[in-house]
Structure formats: structure tokens, C-alpha cells
Automatic annotation (TrEMBL):
Source lineage: Bacteria, Bacillati, Bacillota, Bacilli, Lactobacillales
Domain Amidohydrolase-related: 41-323
InterPro entries hit by this protein: ACMSD, Amidohydro-rel, Metal_Hydrolase
Organism (species): Lacticaseibacillus jixianensis
The keyword Ligase appears for this protein: no
Record-given protein name: Amidohydrolase family protein
Length: 323
């Protein structure tokens, strides 16, 4: 079984230094020093892939992204990340494909960078991590990014990001548990994913996918809560939207989901029921998650038909990212 994983990450020493020097957003990776070889060194990645039966990774920067740097650093930082990623991929063209880091806080520059990265560097789409300074992507100022993606007929990976301090204070801080508990609840435990589900719900409700039907959206962590609420959302969508299609029609047409290392059978069966294997890809979230042999074994042992298994293992990703 050929295996392609699509939410796998990298960083560069240059970006780590810029982030630590300029970012007002707290470091998103408390294990940065321990994970540095697996993030920065592509030979280390290949060794891991060989050990655990992973044929290809679709690589992106979704940890401490230049996206959150001040505007004067974001575009140049993203461009440097993309050039370095392309250089690394050139040494292992059969093992990696890349997604462009986009300076989403400067939308016009982000659209230009996406176009450059796809047409000149061979990237397979772009990635945006979370809201942008607390603002969701349905705001009209971000429309150039979707217009460029639509023209390119490419994929935008909408990855979670660090939520704002204001959101954290209202939703997750409590006198009943520690600040560390609140930080985890606001982050990888729950909050990142809820916010990213809201991101996609807002984009569809605002008509972005109606206006830009050639954009493909990739969403990790089994769709960031959205698939389990599709029927519920449809039941209310006519009250908040005049779009010609139901919310779920756009979602099932243009959104593709993957587990991001959440190898859990009940969620997989729900995703399969709602989306079909042709809208599910596989992912580990390496190196933040290192599930090792389980990456392959879970899928090999899952309750799937042979055709579904092949689609999830590699077929859907090949279609979505043009591999």
C-alpha cells in the first residue's frame, strides 16, 4: 500500500531566529529544541519515513509561522521559508511535496507569494495557520488569497493557529485549574480546533466557496469538528444564508479532511460516512506527533474496503495536490 501523509511539518533555523526575535505571539512549540532535527533536517525525515513505511510527505510550516510576524517581516519571512522548502524538496523529489507559507496578514503579498510558489517553485498549494491577528478569513480584505487560489485551481490548507489572548481569557482561563491547563485547553486539546472549525464555517456561510468553486480546502484533525455537525448546520443555514446550495454541499464539494495523527476508529467512521473516501487523506502531523508504525498499521487494519483504503492512503492526496 502506497502511503502519502499530508499534514507534516518543517522549519528553518532562520525562521526560528526571526520568530523568537520579532513575534508577539507566544512560541507555539515548547519542544522546539528537542524537535529541531526532525523539523529542519530533511535527511532525518527520510530516515523516519523509511523506518515506518511512509512513501511521501506533503510538507508545510505550521508551527511558528512567519504569518504571525509583524507585517514588515511576514512577507520576506514567508518567501524565505518557501525558497528553502523548495531547495530541500529538490534533493528528495519523490519523497516530498510542499505547501507555501503565506503571509496572510498582508493579503495582496500572500496572493503574490502563492502564485509564485505554485508556478515557479512547484508548490502544491498554500497553508494558513489560524485566524490572522484574531480576524477570520471571510473578511473581504483576504479575498485576494482565495481569488489567486481559485485561478490556480490549487489547495489551501487551513491549519489551526494560536488563538488570541482575549479569546483564551474568556473561553478557557479558570480559577478551577492551572494556567498550563488553560493553555492546553485553548490549544491542541480543544481551542485551536474549534477556532479552525469556525473558520471554515464562516468561509462557506460568507459565500467564499460559492464565489471561488475551484479552491480546494484541506482540513486536518478529522475536519476540526465540522463533519459531526453538518446536518445541524444545514438545518439552520437557510436562516443565515441565501446561497443556492446547502452548507454541506459546499463542504463535501471542496473540503478534504485528514486525521493529523488522531488515529481513532469512531471519528474515522463518522468522517467516512459524511465525506466518503474520495474526500479523506492520511496524515500524521509529524514531527509534533510521531506515531511511528501506527501511521501505517492503523490504516491497514481499519474497517475499509480495498478501494477506500487505497483512496485514503494515497489516491485522494494525489488528486487534491496533483501528485
Amino acid at each position: 500500500m502506497k502511503l502519502i501523509t499530508v499534514e507534516e511539518h518543517y522549519d528553518t533555523d532562520q525562521n526560528i531566529e526571526a520568530f523568537n526575535q520579532h513575534s508577539a505571539v507566544a512560541n507555539n512549540n515548547p519542544f522546539q529544541d528537542q524537535l529541531r532535527p526532525a523539523l529542519v533536517d530533511f535527511a532525518t525525515k527520510v530516515t523516519y519515513m523509511d523506518q515506518h513505511g511512509i512513501d511521501m510527505q506533503v510538507i508545510s510550516d505550521a508551527g511558528n509561522s512567519p504569518q504571525v510576524l509583524p507585517d514588515q517581516y511576514a512577507a520576506s519571512g514567508a518567501h524565505a521559508q518557501n525558497e528553502t522548502l523548495a531547495e530541500n524538496i529538490s534533493h528528495y523529489p519523490d519523497r516530498f511535496a510542499g505547501l507555501a507559507t503565506l503571509p496572510a496578514n498582508t493579503p495582496e503579498r500572500a496572493a503574490e507569494e502563492l502564485t509564485y510558489a505554485v508556478t515557479k517553485l512547484g508548490m502544491k498549494g498554500g497553508i494558513i495557520s489560524g485566524s490572522v491577528n484574531g480576524q477570520f478569513l471571510d473578511d473581504p480584505r483576504f479575498e485576494p488569497i482565495f481569488a489567486a487560489a481559485d485561478q490556480l485551481k490549487t489547495t489551501l490548507y487551513l491549519h489551526p493557529g494560536v488563538i488570541t489572548d482575549e479569546q483564551k481569557a474568556v473561553l478557557y482561563d479558570s480559577k478551577a485549574y492551572s494556567q498550563m491547563g488553560a493553555t492546553m485547553m485553548a490549544g491542541a486539546m480543544w481551542g485551536w480546533h474549534m477556532e479552525q472549525g469556525i473558520q471554515i464555517m464562516r468561509l462557506i456561510t460568507a459565500g467564499i466557496l460559492e464565489k471561488y468553486p475551484h479552491v480546494k480546502i484541506a482540513s486536518g484533525h478529522w475536519g476540526e469538528f465540522v463533519p459531526m455537525f453538518l446536518e445541524r448546520i444545514d438545518g439552520f443555514s437557510r436562516l443565515v444564508s441565501t446561497l443556492p446550495l446547502k452548507f454541506s454541499d459546499y463542504y463535501k464539494r471542496q473540503v478534504y479532511i485528514s486525521p493529523s495523527g488522531m488515529f481513532t476508529a469512531p471519528q474515522m467512521q463518522l468522517a467516512l460516512t459524511e465525506m466518503g473516501a474520495d474526500h479523506i487523506m492520511w496524515s500524521e502531523d509529524y514531527p509534533y506527533v510521531q506515531a511511528k508504525d501506527q501511521v501505517r498499521q492503523f490504516l491497514a487494519q481499519a474497517d475499509l474496503t480495498a478501494a477506500q483504503r487505497e483512496a485514503i492512503a494515497h489516491g485522494t492526496a494525489e488528486t487534491v495536490f496533483g501528485l
